[in-house]
Amino acid sequence: MSYTITVNGASLVLDVPGDMPLLWALRDIGGLTGTKFGCGMGLCGACTVHIDGEATRACVTPVAAVVGKQVTTIEGIGSDKVGKAVQQAWLELGVPQCGYCQPGQIMSATALLRRNPKPNDRQIDEAMSGNLCRCGTYTRIRAAIKRAADTAGSPT
Amino acid sequence: MSMSTGLDSGISLTRRTLLKGAGALAGLALYLRMSPSLGAEEVRKYGADAMPGGTVDNPLVFVNIDPAGLVTITIHRPEMGQGIRTSLAMVIADELGAKWEHVRVTQAPGDEARYGNQNTDGSRSMRHFFAPMRRVGAAARMMLEAAAAAHWGVPVAEVAAGEHEVVHSNTGRRLSYGELATAAMKQPVPERARLRLKDPSEFRYIGKSNVPLIDGPDMVSGRAQYSIDVRMDGMVYAVIARPPVLGATLAKYDDSAALKVPGVLRVVALEGKPLPPRYNALGGVAVIASNTWAAMKGREALVLEWNDGDNASYDSASYRKILEAQARKPGKVVRNDGDALAVLAKSKKRIEAEYYMPHIAHATMEPPCATARFADGKCEVWAGVQSPQEARDIIAENLGIDNSRVSVNVPLLGGGFGRRSKCDFAVEAALLAKIMEGRPVKVVWTREDDLRHDYYHTVSLQHLEAALDEQGKPIAWLHRSAAPTIVSTFVANATNQSPFEVGMGAVNVPFQIPNLRVETAEVPAHTRIGWFRSVSNIPHGVATQCFVDELAAAAGRDPKDYLLELIGPPRRIDPRALSDGWNYDEAPDVYVVDTGRLRHVIELAAREARWGRELPRGRGQGIAAMYSFLTYVAAVVEVSVENGVLTIPRIDVALDCGVLVNPDRIRAQVEGSCVMAVSLATLGEITFERGRAVQGNFHEYQISRIHEAPREIYVHLVPSRFDVPLGGVGEPAVPPIAPALLNAIYAATGKRIRQLPLRDQLAT
Ligand code: FES
Ligand code: FES
Hints:
Strand content of chain A: 5-15%
Strand order of the largest sheet of chain A: 2-1-5-3-4
Number of strands of chain B: 30
Bound molecules: FE2/S2 (inorganic) cluster
Shape of chain B: globular
CATH class of the largest domain in chain A: Mainly Alpha
Oligomer: heterodimer
Mean pLDDT of chain B: 94
Helix content of chain B: 25-40%
Largest sheet of chain B: 7 strands, mixed
Strand content of chain B: 15-25%
Number of helices of chain A: 5
Distance between the termini of chain B: 63 Å
Strand order of the largest sheet of chain B: 11-12-9-19-16-17-18
CATH architecture of the largest domain in chain A: Orthogonal Bundle
Number of strands of chain A: 5
Number of domains of chain B: 3
Radius of gyration of chain A: 15 Å
CATH superfamily of the largest domain in chain A: [2Fe-2S]-binding domain
CATH superfamily of the largest domain in chain B: Aldehyde oxidase/xanthine dehydrogenase, molybdopterin binding domain
Shape of chain A: globular
Order of helices and strands of chain A: EEHEEEHHHH
Largest sheet of chain A: 5 strands, mixed
Number of domains of chain A: 2
Structural class of chain B: alpha+beta
CATH topology of the largest domain in chain A: DNA polymerase, domain 1
């Protein structure tokens, strides 16, 4: 079965079963490997992408479900003003350790800031608690979200 | 070669046997090389010299400068989040006088003959390579100066390297590094004795936090390449159904349904090897497909039957009883000062406690993964392994080819923590690549594979007893440690912890107690036991540091004052006087146990945390301090327990590792250590039933999330001093956190937690 989806503004034609998770379609077929595999069950957030702006776990989202929707991945988030501010804050505060979870963290943080430009600690907890980091970068993630909130200004 | 290693387990092995046919065992040999009885002609080597490949400081191996002035530094140690690609580059660039914006790095493949030791484990990278990498940078700088002097026809004493250029002092003429590059590379490499190293006051990057993470931009944009991101023409994807019990063999399997899954190309059985497990592939049935998803679906469709074998009896609940029984009776004595048993027997005030800690899994966020291609009798591998040369040797052994025909490339590691010291997953990829000759094969582990086939952190039970005098000071201390040993992964039926394990916080407690006895218990292993970041320091730290807190409470004393009193006045102790002949394989006269430094970090952490201040109800502070990986660390954890729910508003950690090379990354390692330690103290547990690991994914094996992690972590670094040898950084901050946390819970609630993880033990 062939599906055409929109990823980072471009069309991607996928000749895959409709139940293939978006994660594997992006990575193995689309060659977009920035979106990571961590659990395959929606438990770790490593695979977070935006679907029509909503932070979504690509590992539990079938390809068939995203036809006609806008998918944004870590490779494309830098063209968003908020996404760019988040990436910048991540660099300024030296958030990444191994870096593996960070694409997912950045996608979740960007989605948060787009809907809530000045999140408090509790709101950060709520938005980010689905993203695991085994290296333990949480204190810097929190600080970087606040930094990005200061620099991003109002969402686009 | 008559060298024999007297293992604690009572097995005697020659070094030859250990190393026979196997770089497989090089890592273990490191751990086993504690106090071997050396032949008369052999002198024990220490530190980097004791590591396979030793160190290399040839600038031509590590530095390349192109005519445009771009400096490319080869990093031979794998990057797993410790920031080593940035930090080693900083060291070279500093001595070289390179401008950071002109520095790039490239990752070395596994080749210890060329680069020196690459086994990135044991918090060793900076400890062993700070000095050699300084020499690399200095030598390259001197070659640039020599080339400039030759070009101008002036004595070399008249020229000096500045920032990415060499200047002739008399005339002010300058030549950039790019202009000098070709000629400089042809200059003779200066001898070590002639090298002019910078004075620390001249450092521009070392000790500063002014250099951004070299991989940062790639990591935040999705461009960073991990093993799982490797893509090659014609590549196929494999997922393996492994034996559910260690040592189980495949009875039969039916792959007909699997082969019908669209995308599945082939199903092959992989034979496992006899135990001990070492770094061997576990065997099983591999499903090879055109994409990862198809391989996973194919595996689900397999019908498998196993002969479980002896380890099917492994059950965590009954095993705990074995640990308890063994820890309650006399074991093998590994330290014995005075006569602790006699003093305990007639003591009026005797305190006793037992601490239990389950298996935990590394759970790196990137599950194990490797790609290999076999063609023309050669195997090329891409695998995020911590010890690429060992992986190369073991793969060669498994394929039955010379290691010169195997290459191991090292992408970024999505976490290591000791899991990726074991290259079993890379061996799997190589074996499958040989079967699929000519086609690259990527083996992907699912999270379930990872959690159910780890080399687990050992399960343990620590039994402690102390006798207190009238003033509440301990006059006798007995610590019996029961835990399956890591040696069992390499030597069948090994049963007692070995010197390297008890040397991590059990025997080498620097307490002034006249009668002090440490014993290990004889207990078997039924799963793969491996080292997990900080290793035995974690259970031993919980046991000794919580027990001290219990003694302080029994004596009615402040825990910090009591701990300091137990440590006693500043002094430098030869580790052998603490019955520690291992000492992280470092020279005992160079790396001594300095109680002054230990006291200092305790006082620093306490002061910064405002130890002892009034706290509201339900809040408490706990303290603990550990000397591990040659570094001194103390932690004060502050907790709040409200309606049975634990939160951690603040942790203060003071750390003294000698020289601070990259302070920002040291802080990052400490922060990460706090989170990982909180995770294992509060949530982490792998249990076994019928020989099978029960937990399969993050809903069952939990790790701390952002709201469960400490809210604030303050890292207090003792300023650099160059008169002491470098300590480790990646691991030593983990061990004090869990005991400080448990002690804080006691301070807040009056409840002693002696069993990890905490989970709902505070529920009211
Ligand atoms: S891989 Fe999707 S949430 Fe973990
Ligand atoms: S940075 Fe390594 S898992 Fe988050």
